[in-house]
Design a protein that fits this description.
Largest sheet: 3 strands, mixed
Distance between the termini: 72 Å
Number of helices: 12
Helix content: over 70%
Low-confidence stretches: none
Number of strands: 3
Order of helices and strands: EHHHEHHHEHHHHHH
Mean pLDDT: 82
Shape: globular
Strand content: under 5%
Structural class: mainly alpha
Length: about 300
């Protein structure tokens, strides 16, 4: 066993053929990041400026966009910096911070999708109680929980990881995550394992609760054409976001703990990056296209901007 050392830096995985294709990688990821920032900021601005969109469903959607901006900020600037300098080294404190942001982003994404599912459940199944249940105070509490719970959960996870003294400094990933940091230790990680499994079970329970909620919605919507239309328009984007994120997280969790080194590196990197590439780009686009009110307001704002430019 190697001696335990307090490493000040960690080495991240180098992308495949990075020396030959780093400028192509850089251009592609820069374009992706600019697009993610543009669509999420644009949708957030539309929701904030348009008073007609100051309703719980759209406020939670705005929170989803803000969270996507928060989560991607942990990966793209550092990865673009590494590509341009062709150096894949990260200070240990920045690695811990990156892991904290990426995982709290994922948990906040799940929490927001759960809140959005609850909002749709009340709106469709109990419309008469909607305004009393989803008032300004309850929405503020739900939004606060979307951020506070992930932050506290990840703070504990990071605290437990920092107890460990690493005996290696090579992270087999393009970015830092908490379990990759834990695996660097040659000491006992039993406490981290127990906490990790509790955390995984809690979020599996959350996903199951969301799916049960949607199943009840589908059952409730069968009797009414208007309910079916509302479900298709407002709930299908939630389901698509949930399925996409769950598949990505499921792979990342299983591979991190039980994955084989024989798994193709390119596919492994793609699936590991999927949760910070697809949801931040997919969410605002699918919601902007699918939700009629959002689409109308976006078109209205675009037309106003065009008219102002002509003047």
């Amino acid at each position: 066993m190697m001696d335990m050392i307090n490493f000040t830096t960690y080495t991240l995985m180098e992308p495949h053929n990075a020396k030959s294709y780093r400028y192509i990688y850089f251009t592609s990821f820069l374009f992706l990041y600019v697009m993610i920032l543009f669509v999420n900021i644009w949708l957030s601005v539309v929701i904030v400026l348009e008073k007609a969109l100051h309703e719980p469903m759209y406020i939670f959607l705005c929170n989803l966009c803000v969270n996507d901006i928060y989560g991607t900020a942990a990966f793209y600037p550092k990865f673009l910096h590494d590509l341009i300098l062709n150096s894949y080294v990260i200070p240990s404190y920045l690695c811990v911070f990156q892991a904290f942001v990426v995982y709290s982003y994922v948990m906040c994404e799940y929490s927001t999708l759960a809140v959005m599912a609850y909002d749709r459940h009340v709106a469709i199944c109990r419309p008469l109680d909607y305004h009393s249940k989803m008032n300004r105070f309850s929405c503020s509490i739900l939004l606060g929980l979307c951020w506070i719970v992930p932050f506290i959960t990840m703070f504990i996870a990071v605290f437990l990881s920092n107890r460990l003294v690493p005996c290696r400094n090579q992270i087999e990933k393009l970015y830092c995550d908490n379990w990759s940091i834990v695996k660097l230790s040659c000491g006992s990680t039993v406490i981290n394992n127990i906490y990790g499994f509790i955390f995984i079970l809690l979020y599996i329970g959350l996903v199951i609760a969301i799916m049960v909620s949607y199943f009840k919605l589908i059952t409730a919507c069968q009797a009414s054409l208007e309910c079916r239309r509302k479900f298709w328009q407002t709930c299908v984007p939630h389901l698509l976001s949930l399925i996409n994120l769950t598949v990505a997280i499921l792979f990342d969790t299983i591979y991190n703990r039980y994955g084989s080194s024989d798994f193709p590196a390119n596919l492994r990197n793609f699936l590991a990056l999927e949760m910070i590439i697809v949801p931040p780009l997919f969410n605002p686009v699918i919601y902007g296209l699918k939700l009629t009110e959002v689409r109308k307001r976006i078109l209205k704002l675009c037309m106003n901007c065009t008219e102002n430019d002509k003047v």
